[in-house]
Amino acid sequence: MKTDIIKLATIAEKKTKYIVGLMSGTSLDGLDIALCKIEGAGKSTQLTVEQFTTIEYNPSQKQLLGEHASKSQVNLKTLCQLNAWLGELYASLINNALKEWQVAADTVDLIASHGQTLYHCPKQAFADVEKLNSTLQIVDGDIIAAKTNIITIADFRQKHIAKGYEGAPLVQYGDYLLYSHTSIDRVLLNIGGISNLTYLPKNCTLTQSMSSDLGPGNTLVDQYCRHVLGLPFDENGEIASSGKIQLPFLEALLSHEFFDMPLPKSTGQELFNQTFVHHALDGKDYNHEDIITTLTEFTAITVANAVNELGTTELELYVSGGGIHNVFLMARIESHLNNRVLIKDFSQLGINPDAKEAALFALLANETVSGGSDALPFSMGKISLPT
Ligand SMILES: Nc1ncnc2c1ncn2[C@@H]1O[C@H](COP(=O)(O)OP(=O)(O)OP(=O)(O)O)[C@@H](O)[C@H]1O
Ligand SMILES: CC(=O)N[C@H]1[C@@H]2OC[C@@H](O2)[C@@H](O)[C@@H]1O[C@H](C)C(=O)O
């Protein structure tokens, strides 16, 4: 036991660390594994993604996760089993990836595990939750640590809650440390299941930067494709390109009170789901294409509105997340930005956009172990030891 603590103290002093970051997002598509080389800490951090893979969940795994994610009622027994089973699954996927990359486990300093969000409950969006923000990510760090023999830091969002925030987005910290610029205003947009952005005004401090969720990214189209059309998603936005925008439906979607709340805020599929779409449809019988086109336009408008409301005229906008592959969505965002903002691919910042979120958690683990309070105001994540 003490040897693990001494090892952790040695790791904390290392100038260069190898940290495996893990992320499984709200799309429930698979586990992202990023082996990151991290030099330094705080504002002098340099992060390189050395290896990256996404291991897609198989259909029965997706179904099991889907049955528990964002549901107000679940089977408690299977939830309990899921927590342990995901730990076993993650550990075996990490061990396999390291083997494939020919990386010895004892050269990896830490694993940083986000876990699977099952429920996200910020108090400002839930009338029945008067006093507390709460969020729940499962996958037990002890199982990952014991089965990989690597010290694991997991469950990053609870400290954010404990410090009075909503538990999300956490991306602000990584974006600020890695990408803030002395003379350029930057916006880093991520379009995953839920969309979010980080605003980094030129030469900003952490408190002058801001991250917020913006609303549904791909999740409503994904859910419609999956449940109604039997497709995983709208490949390249082809269905959206073939339909018409239905204005009454669009207006009903945009009338959700989340969009009246000021930034920063956070959300999830607890609010933006099939039931929300059903209410917005209000019994109208549009064809599938029109529904998908309108849902995609809804995402484009909410994203572009948030960027426009920042009030910055000259900025660099970098985009990551699976939504970048949706050609129709990206064209509509550009159009709602009045084509005055140059949209850049996140890879121009030197990182594979698909690896960005997994790398963020590697960076947060690095701060927890080696950071000073001059960089981030508090540590995040709980430490699990292998022995
Ligand atoms: N070729 C493609 N064409 C259109 N959409 C795509 C394509 N590839 C991925 N996507 C979209 O991207 C989604 C996955 O995005 P991503 O992996 O960024 O989400 P996530 O990380 O799970 O979500 P979050 O960031 O909310 O946690 C898919 O579900 C799909 O909607
Ligand atoms: C509760 C939760 O898991 N939120 C995720 C989700 O996926 C995107 C958006 O909603 C974001 O707020 C967050 O993830 C990113 C990585 C974050 O915390 O910055």
From TrEMBL:
Tell me its EC number(s), please. Answer: 2.7.1.170
Task: Give the main EC class.
Answer: transferase
Q: Which residues cross the membrane?
A: none
- Give the UniProt record's GO annotations in the biological process aspect: 1,6-anhydro-N-acetyl-beta-muramic acid catabolic process; amino sugar metabolic process; peptidoglycan turnover
Reaction(s) catalysed by this chain's protein: 1,6-anhydro-N-acetyl-beta-muramate + ATP + H2O = N-acetyl-D-muramate 6-phosphate + ADP + H(+)
Which domain of life does this protein belong to? Bacteria
Record keyword Nucleotide-binding present: yes
InterPro entries registered for this protein in UniProt = Anhydro_N_Ac-Mur_kinase (IPR005338), ATPase_NBD (IPR043129)
Q: Which GO terms describe its molecular function?
A: ATP binding; kinase activity; phosphotransferase activity, alcohol group as acceptor
The pathway that the record names for this protein is: Cell wall biogenesis; peptidoglycan recycling; Amino-sugar metabolism; 1,6-anhydro-N-acetylmuramate degradation
Q: Where does ATP bind?
A: 25-32
Q: Which UniProt keywords apply?
A: ATP-binding, Carbohydrate metabolism, Kinase, Nucleotide-binding, Transferase
Role of this protein = Catalyzes the specific phosphorylation of 1,6-anhydro-N-acetylmuramic acid (anhMurNAc) with the simultaneous cleavage of the 1,6-anhydro ring, generating MurNAc-6-P. Is required for the utilization of anhMurNAc either imported from the medium or derived from its own cell wall murein, and thus plays a role in cell wall recycling.
Regarding protein family, the annotation reads: Belongs to the anhydro-N-acetylmuramic acid kinase family.
Task: Please state what the protein is called.
Answer: Anhydro-N-acetylmuramic acid kinase
